[in-house]
Amino acid sequence: xxxxxxxxxxxxxxxxxxxxxxxxxxxxxxxxxxxxxxxxxxxxxxxxxxxxxxxxxxxxxxxxxxxx
Length: 68
Known about the structure:
By secondary structure, the protein is of the alpha/beta class. It has helices at 18-26, 47-53; strands at residues 5-11, 34-41, 59-61. It has one domain. It contains 2 helices and 3 strands. The N and C termini lie far apart (29 Å).
């Protein structure tokens, strides 16, 4: 069964906040199937490691900035 909703989080140097953001989304009581997609936009801090620590595998975008 495919997710009905995709939550896309663009992330650029969000190491400080990304784990809490993902945890909050994972704890929602929404009863339908959803997915969380993190797009790392060339972060230079520990954003990618922080995302992976939550069990998600971020998508990499080589251009910097969340608008990419």
